[in-house]
Amino acid sequence: MAQIGDEEINHLDVNKLDSNTAERYDLDRKVMAFVESHLKDTEERRKPAYRMTKDEGAGILEHPIGETPKNIDMLLSVLDKHLLGNGFNQNHDGHMAYIPGGSIYAAALGDYIAAATDRFAAVFSHCPGAVRMENMLISWVASLFGYPEGHAGNIASGASTSMLMALVVARHSKRLKSRDFERLVVYVTDMCHICVQAGLNTAGLFEAIIRKVPMDEDFRMNADELRRLVMKDKQAGLLPFVVVASLGTTAVGAVDPIDDIADVAEEHDLWFCVDAAYGGFFVLVDECKPLFKGIERADAIVVDPHKGLFLPKGIGMLLVKDGQKLRDCFTVFISYLPGDSLNMEANSPINLSFENTKHFRGLRMWLPLQLYGVQAFRDSLEEKIFLSRYLYQKLSEIPNVVTGRPPQLTVITFYCDVGTDEENEIFNTNLLTEILNDGSFYLTSIRIQGKLCLRVCPIHNRSHKDSIDRFLMILQEKIGKLAAQNNHIN
To answer: DSSP secondary structure string, 91-111?
Structure first.
């Protein structure tokens, strides 16, 4: 190795990546002004809920990574045009597709603090306060579901990661061998989220049999049918493994009978996981509590604060009732970490997940909860339940609009019946296109029992009654326009 002296080191300009107070203040001021402008324009509806330009954001590629620095004002202009100017606007009250949580501003500030201070939240001794904060948040959520002492959990990126970990813990705790995998049976419904199949594939369980359990008229798992299928599979020499119940399916918002499914799981030693990613935080609403009966019996629960707590995307949570099973699955000795990384009292996240280097996600959840208090979230969630019922009622009053089943949480489906199945398909496809082209609202379609339906989920924290009334007005306007064009609906 060549000798290195002062000359070789000193000729490098290594201070460009550092910033002083004045430079940081200037950057902060301009970025905050940029964000505030976007939020204000969105709140005052000068920016749409949905817009797609012809180039579909390809203009961002005109600004490749290069050797020379660029001006922050120019870069923010690029972001405004090519990033915020395309796709659906997550901050908009008209965003009613999928499960639109919202994105409370205080959560973004929590993320800013976490990123700017760069605290390492995976090992207790590296930042005890961060680990204590995340474990406190986990314990608070676990208490909402009635979990006893001895639970453990992890704050992950979302339901997909949490579900993957839940399945891996199930595999590990059952002490399965690879030769068993092709005999495993996982029980779900047709409404189950794709994260279950993706999790099985990632966990190496792609050979497992996916058994679709029949549903009732409200798309809820039939526990008696589950019991029948499990017994039949046992008689066939298969290994019933996991049952995943949904507490709010993304497709239609269905809530499975948790307590009845728990009975079957206990009778047949199934690992019972509840996917409460969407519906979990409705446990805060007194009227919704009966839906949660028996959830404390689940082996694992997946829940997304970025849905029911209206936080920015990228924060989910896994809870495991027997915390030792979670620790046993993920605890590995690492020679270069301090000995306390294996201190079970500390519950370091590194021992509760496959993540090592992780973002300090807890701060984006802790700050809004502390600033506003739990009651504010409870009130907002209760409002969304009432808004959904109000929307369902008003849709039912529109001539030729056929509504799906009454909302169990906040998902409503409907379609316009204008004649034959083929005519309905064309009309409702065009209706969705008209709504999207208008830009005031963003929603999606779903196919239910062969019929193309429009799907609305008014759970956004900025969606209120005036949002619903505007949606109904635009919907009826578009229905009338299409009917006149196609001579449909008398």
So the answer is: T-TTB-SS------HHHHHHH
Q: Which residues pair with 242 in a beta bridge?
A: 186, 271
- Secondary-structure breakdown of the chain: helix, strand, coil percentages, each rounded to the nearest 5: 50, 15, 40
Residue 312 main-chain phi, psi, to 5 deg: -60, 155
β-strand pairing of 184-188 with 239-246 = parallel
φ/ψ of 225, rounded to 5, equals: -70, -35
- Could you tell me whether strands 316-320 and 401-403 are parallel, antiparallel, or unpaired per DSSP bridges? unpaired
The pTM (predicted TM-score) of the whole model is 0.94
Strand residues in 264-377 grouped as ranges (E): 271-275, 300-303, 316-320
Question: Do 437 and 452 touch, CB atoms closer than 8 A?
Answer: no
Res. 303 pLDDT band, cuts 50 70 90: very high
Name the CA dihedral angle for 367, 369, 370, 373, rounded to a multiple of 10 degrees. 150
Helix axes 362-372, 128-144, angle to 10 degrees: 70
CB-based contact 215:189 (threshold 8 Å):
yes
Burial call 267-299: b when 16+ CB within 10 Å, e when fewer: ebebbbbbbbbbbbbbbbbeebeebbebbbbbb
Do 165 and 156 form a contact (C-beta atoms < 8 A)?
Answer: yes
Helix (H) or strand (E) holding 82: helix 72-82
- Residue 361: pLDDT band (50, 70, 90) is very high
The pLDDT tens digits for 168-214 are 999 999 999 999 999 999 999 999 999 999 999 999 999 999 999 99
Burial classification of residue 455, based on how many CB atoms lie within 10 Å of its CB (0-12 exposed, 13-18 middle, 19 or more buried)? buried
pLDDT tens digit string along 130-165? Answer: 999 999 999 999 999 999 999 999 999 999 999 999
- According to the model, what pLDDT value does residue 345 have? 53
Token pair belonging to 188: 């779900």
